[in-house]
Design brief:
Blueprint: E1 3-9, H1 14-25, E2 32-38, E3 50-55, H2 64-76, E4 81-84, E5 90-91, H3 95-105, E6 110-118, E7 124-127, E8 142-145, H4 166-176, E9 181-192, H5 196-200
Parallel strand pairs: 1-2, 1-4, 2-3, 6-9
Antiparallel strand pairs: 4-8, 5-9, 6-7, 6-8
């Protein structure tokens, strides 16, 4: 089984990208990591093993166009499943194996996991309550099987005004197109959050640079 993991990034801290890459390489099953630089200075990752695509401009759509470009590249690598990982997030070691087994056992075309919330230094806050597949998912929690690759065009189907929430639209697009979907309630994605609401949920004062706005699922892009 060939699994590819697509990571777009724009001006993301290299240490974070390096942590994400290490988490892909540390999976309990092999995966090919595809980094897509969205028009910023390319990251220099020590011991990088994968594909690094350098785009010459920033597409300004929260990584959606770079994600689709990464998907095209994954298909050229004969991918049988494509997962996604934002540049500031990382996987638990059994993330891909768990989702793949869940998809196979339930004959799914795509599935999503739960996630944990983390401070900017990577320390754990709590399990995320809103990303539960009903209806919210997170980009980094998504695995799409080959049977649904044709629907990945959904990353770029809608207008710039909804680009920040495109993961939700892709999930709904998959459902509309008849894909068999499932949610695995196991938190194997670590989400580094800037959202003040996540800190307040556990009675913690948000950091000074926190994003203080209503955001149901907490998506952001660096």
């Amino acid at each position: 089984m060939t699994i590819c993991v697509v990571t777009p990034y724009f001006e993301t801290a290299q240490a974070w990208i390096g942590q994400g890459h290490a988490s892909v390489r540390g999976q309990t099953i092999p995966a090919h990591h595809i980094l897509v630089c969205d028009g910023s200075a390319p990251a220099q990752i020590e011991a990088f093993h994968g594909t690094h695509i350098i785009l010459q401009r920033n597409y300004r759509d929260y990584g959606n166009t770079p994600r689709l470009i990464g998907c095209y590249n994954a298909i050229t690598h004969n991918a049988e499943a494509i997962a996604f990982l934002d540049g500031d997030n990382w996987f638990q070691p059994d993330h891909l194996e768990g989702l793949l087994r869940f998809a196979r056992d339930n004959r799914l075309d795509a599935c999503s996991s739960a996630r944990t919330l983390h401070r900017m230094d990577g320390s754990l806050i709590a399990k995320c309550a809103t990303v539960n597949g009903r209806p919210y998912i997170d980009t980094s929690c998504l695995l799409v099987m080959k049977s649904a690759f044709q629907h990945l065009i959904g990353w770029v189907l809608l207008a710039q005004s909804v680009a920040a929430e495109m993961d939700q639209h892709v999930w709904r697009h998959l459902q509309t197109m008849g894909a068999r979907l499932g949610f695995l309630d196991k938190a194997t994605v670590c989400y580094r959050t800037r959202h003040a609401s996540h800190y307040r949920l556990v009675g913690e004062t948000p950091p000074p640079d926190a994003i203080d706005r209503i955001d149901l699922h907490g998506e952001h892009y660096h």
